[in-house]
Amino acid sequence: MKKDFIDFLAERKSIRKFDTSHRISKREIEEILSLAAKAPSGNNTQPWKVVTVMNKEVQKQLVPLSFNQSQIEDAAAIFIVFGDPLEYDVDHLADYKARNEHLSSEEIEKFKEKMTKFYEMSPIDKGPEALKLDCGLFSMNLLSAIRAYGYDGAPMRGVNFAGIKELLSIPEDWLPILIIPFGKANEPGRPKVRKPVAEFTRFII
User: Fold this and answer.
1) Contacts of 178 (CB under 8 A, 6+ apart)
2) Which of 2, 8, 96, 129 is such that its CA lies 20 to 30 A from the CA of 121?
3) Which domains can be identified in the chain, with CATH numbers?
4) Which residues pair with 78 in a beta bridge?
């Protein structure tokens, strides 16, 4: 099991050539997203929002907004990941906990007081940096979940997010994180040279 997981990590590559005839079911996509949502996030805020595009006509419209990269149209589907700052709102968080954890009104008030103090002490944890971190953790989990289901994908940021938000009627305050086109690989990804551990690690022993 350990070796299988090590191989799974070691063999990851970004795939940009897809089998254009392959289709992925909505049920499979929902299972992939459910698995990805096990990712950690600060205070369990889960600030990610995902727009899933499975419509070929829409994918074609996204191509010119993605600098004409063919994988946008060729992929079986596309995940577009955004971060929603509303998920860091204390009242919003408290409402989620009240509905899902069945806390008493006293426990909810204590939670709100704790979170208010936390954000006053560390405002960065409710800003764009936090959204990028939390949604980055989710996105890496999403890439792994895609592979676990026998598919491949590639994270992309070289796109016109403003145009994409306008085309898909995305809320203005959602922060774009990345796009992941995915599907059945049509050819293997190119190997990349990685920096050795000694080059990016400092040990304090």
Assistant:
1) 80, 81, 139, 155, 156, 157
2) 96
3) 14-81+130-181 (3.40.109.10)
4) 53, 181
145 alpha carbon, distance to own chain's centre: 11
Neighbour-count burial for 85-109, b at 16+ CB within 10 Å, e otherwise: bebbebeebbeebeeeeeeeeeebe
Nearest to 44 by CA among 2, 88, 75, 3: 88
Lookup: tokens for 129: 């940096």
Look at residue 101 and tell me whether its pLDDT is greater than 90.
no
Q: What is the three-state SS of the chain? A: CHHHHHHHHHCCCCCCCECCCCCCCHHHHHHHHHHHCCCCCHHHCCCEEEEEECCHHHHHHHCHHHCCCCHHHHCCEEEEEEECHHHHCHHHHHHHHHHHHCCCHHHHHHHHHHHHHHHHHCHHHHCHHHHHHHHHHHHHHHHHHHHHCCCEECCECCCCHHHHHHHCCCCCCCEEEEEEEEECECCCCCCCCCCCHHHHCCCCC
Instruction: Give the β-pairing of 48-53 and 175-183.
Output: unpaired
Read off the pTM.
0.94
> Has residue 164 got a pLDDT over 70?
yes
Tokens of 157: 């940021």
**HSE-up of 97 (CA within 13 Å, CB side)?**
22
